[in-house]
Amino acid sequence: MKTFLLLIAVAGAAGTCRFPPQLWCSSEEIAIQCKVYQQCKESVWTVKTNAALVEFELYFESLCPDCRNFIKTQLFPTYTKVGSIMNITLVPYGNAREKQSGDRWVFTCQHGEQECIGNLLETCAIHTLKSIDRIMPFIHCMELSEYPLQSVQSCSQQLSVPLDPIMFCYNSTVGNTLEHKMAQKTEALNPPHKYVPWVVLNGVHTEKINDEAARDLLKLVCDTYTGTKPSACTATRAQLTGCAQSDL
């Protein structure tokens, strides 16, 4: 109550705030406009710059329409707005199956051979690019096309990403082994995944988390983060369905 009264006094003296008192500390942007930034920082925002990042894992497959839509309409826009408070892990495998043949793994994918190609190319891109700030734009670009071998070339050109290391990985046992690791990571999920896109938030998957991520990932990430909220923490949109597992 003392903090609230202090904020009223400061903002009232300023006389320039167009927001109701309950919103003054809801974002840095509003706090600055209402001239209460320092008071919010010291008295209301409880967690500082060392707050834990939101751990976000997405299990998906490259040609699943709902995965592509989720990356395009939820994950990539959320990353561009509040990526600084997220630690994003991408696992391109989804509802695929694998079996060992000699010293290699053979993959069968729900949406056919092209999806297996896309999964492998995206796995190699993740391995090669390493930084999420390079990975996310590249995966987003790849997911805009249904033709992975063409899109890997065009996305490399558009984003100034070297193509040769990705293709070396793709054509070698390195990529095959990496995709096997994606399979292992997917099969180790607890609870086991039933569809994709499958979201794990801070190590936890529930139907509620998946539904909220599909409807408004930005809000979910902002609500989950325990630090001072970035100014971009505002509402989003859209519900989507999933690609259910099928027998391959």
UniProtKB/TrEMBL annotation:
PROSITE patterns: SAP_A. One of its GO terms (molecular function) is oxidoreductase activity, acting on a sulfur group of donors, disulfide as acceptor. Residues 1-15 form the signal peptide. It is found in: Secreted. It comes from the Eukaryota. The keyword Iron-sulfur does not apply. Residues 10-50 form the Saposin A-type domain. Keywords: Disulfide bond, Glycoprotein, Secreted, Signal. One of its GO terms (cellular component) is extracellular region. InterPro entries: Interferon-induced_GILT (IPR004911), SAP_A (IPR003119). Belongs to the GILT family. This is Saposin A-type domain-containing protein. It comes from Littorina saxatilis.
